[in-house]
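Quick board copy: two proteins, each given as sequence then tokens.
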Amino acid sequence: MASTESKSGSSENFHTQEPSRVAQPGARWGPQHAGARELAELYSPGKRGQEWLSVLLCFTLMAFNFCYLVTYFHLGHIWYILLGIVAGILTADFASGLVHWGADTWGSVDLPIVGKAFIRPFREHHIDPTAITRHDFIETNGDNCMLTIIPLANMAANFLMLSPAEIYRSYPWYCYVFALAIFVTLTNQIHKWSHTYFGLPRWVTFLQDCYIILPRKHHRVHHVSPHETYFCITTGWLNYPLEKLGFWRNLEDLIQSLTGEKPRSDDLRWAQKTK
């Protein structure tokens, strides 16, 4: 078991043992929390089907595009390729923060379509942070795969329809889009690894220790209630500068002043459920 200290000295535990099957109605967090059990039960067969389809389409398109990128590779592009990859990773990290912040902070599980399908996992995660470690590959990565299907399909269409000269000119852009798609696709898998404290492959812990992907200690900061900072969960590179700029806080203040909506009100409602 590992734990993290909050600024006030309180700690929040992170463990990956199998949850007890005995109900604990008064649990403050974890799989026996009343809200966590209710949210887990909202995972539907239809949602599962959407995730399977998204994973299959995403990885098929990714393999197709990778073959064309290898075919059109030229050493003259090498520096542009490296720049495109770094830019793609940074864009993915910011996008992960924007989506994470939006789903954590606004909206409700009761919203039509998006509520149960996409906001529900974020509510569950705050009151049962280790639930993600018990999700299989499809449930973990299905939604992120869905996000990349359109850009990957557009890239594939370009490879089929454009001339070699046109592809050559746009090659660095395709490298950027492909790197962005890979890291967006893997974001929730990386997030899952940041909550897994036992049994990770050595290459994963190496990437975490090198800050190439989100480190476990770094992500603990977000899980100190009220979960209002460090939203970027791909690499975490942008968390510190965005926090120093007060980016999320200022954005919340602006939205609250315009709409009157209180940040994280639905998140707090689920956290306070007792039955």
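And the next:
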Amino acid sequence: MASPAQESTLIGLCDGAVDPKRHQSSFLTNKVGGQPDWQPVLRRQFPRCARCGAPLAHVVQVYCPLEASPYHRNLHLFACSGADCSGRSESWKALRSQCLESEVEPSKVAPAQEASLSASDWCDSADDWGAEEGGDGWGGVKPNRRVEDEPPEDPAHSDMDVGSRLQVLRLGEPLMDTSLLRSFFISVLDESDLLGEGYDLDHAQELLREYESREGVTVGELNSKEGSGGEEKYEKTRAKHGDAVFSRFMKNISLCPQQILRYCRGGKPLFISEPPSNMAQVVSACASCGGSRTFELQLMPALVSLLQRTDGSAQLEFGTVLVYTCAQSCWKEGSASAVEEVCLVQTDPDQQLFK
């Protein structure tokens, strides 16, 4: 059963690039782009766009086990970069995968790595960085499978003929490397730490000014006065487009506009525009157990400029992508396929604001 909702909001920041010649990642790694790292007991999956049928690019991988749960747990987000599909919810997929800790050999589960930023994590055992090949970053033990590894062969299919194998490859072959999105590690911090003890407010204001100058927008000033207890003070400015929802969105991210991801399972999302009036239909019941879904994470506008293909071609377009998952995090033991959850894509009202 899922643990109680997480109270704090965790913020993901883009860290160093994942260099396949120097680093290796596993399902414990939080990252942007690249190939997805599936849990060792699961089949590799190659989702396609529900609108145009094209293979989807892997956008984000998050390792997010629940408190007091015996399961490893991941969320993988995929999207179609086709021009006609950009910004459409049906062109995104969120896949949740789980496996019992007992199903993975403990000696081959990589320990957490020290991130380059002082940060907390989604959980104590998640890995921000991965490890350099040949190093001791995994406690002297390499992870049990690499990104490109196939899952163990099912004995029931060991006699599959060559023609059948070629047919499977033709239908489910992943994207070529030139179509993959460039990969970056994600470092994590608790949003409450931004104004906690030792946080440099002057540095936060400097980052905010740099962001405003770079993007040509005004999102307000931060001010901490004596006796305020470190609370955030926001001098409101009138949004150019008069959108109150967008103004609240900008206010909430003003302390850390470079955030690329927000994680708060069971919390409240930040809408960039008015939510759809039919939210009950958009966020439908879990297709596996019939239970309700809850908000878990969202991708932020600062991620858009990072989502470049390895061949340098077009990026994805969105304002924010909200992900809702089964409130009970239901899972059928022994399952080898991930569960599809719900993505809600909202576009940037100004279209060019975060580019």
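Board note added afterward: DSSP finds four helices and twelve strands in the chain.
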